[in-house]
Amino acid sequence: MAELFSLQQIVNGLQLGSIYALIALGYTMVYGIVRLINFAHGDFYMIGAYAAYAAFFLFNAYIAPGNVLVFIVLIVAMLVGAAVAMLSNKFAYKPLRYKPKLSSLVTAIGVSMFIEYFFSAFPPIGPSPRGFPEVLPKVMWTMGSAQVSNYVVIDLVVAAALMTGLTLLVQKSPLGRAMRAVSQDKDAAKLMGINVEGIISFTFLIGGAFAGAAGLLAGLTYPRIMPYMGILPGLKAFIAAVLGGIGNIPGAMLGAYIMGIAETTANAYNSLLGEGIAFVILILVLLVRPTGILGEKTADKI
Amino acid sequence: MGTIKLPRLLIAALIFYVVVTILSLDQVHILNGYFMVIINRSLIFVILAASLNLINGITGQFSLGHMGFAAVGAYVSGTITTLVLKLPAPQPGFWITGPIFIFMIAIVIGGIAAGLVGFLIGFPSLRLKGDYLAIMTLGFGEIIRTILNNIDYVGGPRGLLGIPKFSTFTTITLFTFLIIVLLRNLVQSSHGRAMLSIRENELASELCGIDTTRYKVMGFVIGAFCAGVAGGLLAHLLQLAHPTQYGFLPSALVLIMVYAGGMGSMTGSIFAAFSLTFLTEGLRVAFDNIPSFRIGTMDVRIGTEWVMVIYAILLILIMLFRTEGIMGMREAKLLIIEEKKKK
Amino acid sequence: MSALLSIQGMSHYFGGLKAVSDFTFDVPEGVIYGLIGPNGSGKTTTFNLISGLYTPTTGKIFFQGKEITGHRPFRIVQGGIARTFQNLRIFGNLSVIDNIRVARHYTVKSGLFTSLLRLPSFLQEEADVREDAMQLIRMFHLEDRAHDQAKNLPYGALRRLEIARALATKPKLVLLDEPAAGMNPKETDDLMGLIRRVRDEFKVTVFLIEHHMKLVMNVCERVKVIDFGETIAEGDPKVVGKDPKVLEAYLGKRGAEC
């Protein structure tokens, strides 16, 4: 039995937090820009895991397991995640953009149901869990009281690289400025000549790609994938985004790592508590600080 | 003075009850046991859909974990009848005997427990504006499964088994009728109008002196209570309660019923609950009879799994092309209480 | 004249932006009080502060001598301050009579169980509320449309419905947010008569914001002119209307339109 806040739990927590962070970013960006909780976002992550799985068997014949293969599989997972996210936006969310918000929320549920049921009904995939292949031989090191594998390094490095790239994109590039403008005020952005629908589509693309990457990392780290694997991590990542301040990009990262460490720590104590800690956090946030850690109070337009 | 039109609905319910009972008699045998299970299940889904409609359609909130409350009702009432009181299976018959009366109390207690849980998760989320209820109920619907899986007393992952079959056509019809009347009376009262006004415009509602938090929570708790009753009835119909029966996906089926029937229309929910339950069974039978075929080297079998894929597409199509569902916000005459006209 | 509503040193900031700056004024009981100023001068923010949608950054609001700063909006309505909105906020899918009955709800005594069981006391009260609502509906000439969905009403009727709905909460003070917005001159004239009738028949105090000068100068008995969150002039409309500062800040730009 590990003690609370052991080094090992923190390492495990950072690993889980990296995966949550990549999912949470997509949630929070889409929410920030179109005020929609995209319930299907967890399923993009699941699709990413399956895409990585398929890519492994496609490329394994030519490339031996190792860092190069991981990189190729990662790119495939991100591309597939991005494509699915953009398609859902185009066919399910875009037509409802100016309808009551509830319609988009219900549609998001429909998209989520469709993906989950389709994957479990589609014979080549099926409902049963599959083992995820070893895309890379596992190496373990001992660091003080903790066991650290090269998987941990990959999880942290991939997440850090993507998040750095995103931060630079949003803060420094003209595209990022346009994204921030659209999230502030769609109508004003349109008047400034910004292609609002293009920006929204791009946001879904980034979110989907990040979720796809998270899918690969999850497959690698917890090597079991199935069609319903996206529901709970998606939910927890969303809660992480709420904890950090919904719509706030650094907030989503911060919330995700807090969530990851809280979950692994609680899990070491009691598995039921590990499962439930996310909801305890959600209730506490809603009661104590609904705007989240880094969120600001926004004035409702009246 | 006009008369209160309450009896009309009662008469309709009685006609339904008598006709189905006669058709199911052994001597007539038009509705066999299989059909009766589907009818009973439809009635239970009527409760679930109509009560979710109170939350999502009337009060304008967005709950995603309705089956989670059904789970609370199922396990609480099942625990009372099966584990605590160890009631024997009832004798077949029309009359309400002692054990059946206790069963009905257990069902109501299950409903109250679900309502209490509803308050605990509804209050923190409904206090705020936004979609927090959706995330909270979705989380609750999933977490309840984990909790049930971990409580050995109620069977853990095996589920609560050996529940006596107290849910008969009679008891189910009775509960369904009472809940429909309750929901109808609620919606067509001053309290119901307060809830409707929140759906229409929350800010204006608050500025008409309505304590919006209170009415959102009230609608949610009443909805959760009804779901708890439905869950108890379902457990005593299927004679088991199992963690996998509740969760996000079963809840989504109820959601489809509400939006297919028409957000805000009790009539639509009732109609959709019946037709979708029957359609689901019909499609199951139909898909099971599709022979398997080969594509290349792969043996393809189109099985019942595809029913839910179709429903998911149906939900998306409704939202894209007919957001108001079948009924819109209209109600059947039977469910409208005519107001007293002034002489 | 005693002050029904008293505002003391009220300021409000959005981030660093000063929307309302150190307002101090009294609305005496029984008058028709007008607050005028160009767009963005803080008029609607003032109403949002009084009706509890925002909490003032500094300062206090008193109503009938009691402090109401920071109370939740529905409590303030129940305390006797009703309001309308510049961009209408009607319950579109409810009938006209139901729009009004919602506003009467908080005075209803029948509890949840009495209502669910439809006990005689509940039925009696429903009938009373209905009769009350019909009276208001007749007064605002909406009786032909009483059972129509409100969203199908023409614009002028919706404006009247909103005022009727505000009055159904049995207020002592009614805040009217640009009641003449979008109205033609004939409708505006009718509205002026209506506002006077409302004050006289319902014994309420009316506090309105407008930038329609003619309406304000004709109907208001006391006005306050603001610009950029600051008070420029206050007092009798005839005097204020000649104040050079007002002419410069406000009428100078807009006077020609009226």
Note the topology.
The complex is a heterotrimer of chains A (302), B (343) and C (258).
Chain A: H1 7-34, H2 41-59, H3 67-93, H4 101-121, E1 130-131, E2 140-143, E3 146-149, H5 150-172, H6 174-184, H7 186-191, H8 196-221, E4 224-225, H9 231-244, H10 249-269, H11 271-288
Antiparallel strand pairs in A: 1-4, 2-3
Helix pairs in contact in A: 1-5, 1-8, 1-9, 1-10, 2-3, 2-8, 2-9, 3-8, 5-6, 5-8, 6-8, 9-10, 9-11, 10-11
Chain B: H1 6-24, H2 33-58, H3 66-84, H4 98-126, H5 132-149, E1 160-161, H6 169-187, H7 190-200, H8 202-206, H9 212-238, E2 240-241, H10 248-261, H11 266-288, E3 293-295, E4 298-300, H12 305-321
Antiparallel strand pairs in B: 1-2, 3-4
Helix pairs in contact in B: 1-6, 2-6, 2-9, 2-10, 2-11, 3-4, 3-5, 3-9, 4-5, 4-9, 6-9, 7-9, 10-11, 10-12
Chain C: E1 3-14, E2 17-28, E3 32-36, H1 43-50, E4 58-63, E5 66-67, H2 73-79, E6 81-83, H3 96-104, H4 112-117, H5 120-139, H6 155-168, E7 173-177, H7 185-202, E8 205-210, H8 213-219, E9 222-227, E10 230-235, H9 237-240, H10 244-254
Parallel strand pairs in C: 3-8, 3-9, 6-7, 7-8
Antiparallel strand pairs in C: 1-2, 1-4, 4-5, 9-10
Helix pairs in contact in C: 3-5, 3-6, 5-6
Short description:
Chain A is mainly alpha-helical and 302 residues long. Chain A has helices at residues 7-34, 41-59, 67-93, 101-121, 150-172, 174-184, 186-191, 196-221, 231-244, 249-269, 271-288, and strands at residues 130-131, 140-143, 146-149, 224-225.
User: Tell me, what's the shape of chain A?
Assistant: globular
Q: What does the average pLDDT of chain B come to?
A: 89
> Could you give a short account of the major beta sheet of chain A?
2 strands, antiparallel
Number of helices of chain B: 12
The total of helices of chain A stands at: 11
Low-confidence stretches of chain A: none
Tally the structural domains of chain B. 1
Strand fraction of chain B: under 5%
- Name the helix and strand elements of chain B from N-terminus to C-terminus, one letter apiece: HHHHHEHHHHEHHEEH
Mean pLDDT figure of chain A: 91
Q: Approximately how much beta-strand content do the residues of chain A carry? A: under 5%
Number of strands of chain B: 4
The helix-and-strand class of chain B reads mainly alpha
Instruction: Enumerate the strands of the largest sheet of chain A in spatial order, edge to edge or round the barrel.
Output: 1-4
For the record, give the distance between the C-alpha atoms at the N and C termini of chain A, rounded to a whole number.
54 Å
Count of β-strands of chain A:
4
| Largest interface between protein chains, with number of residues from each side | A-B, 46 and 47 residues
Fraction of residues in helix of chain A: over 70%
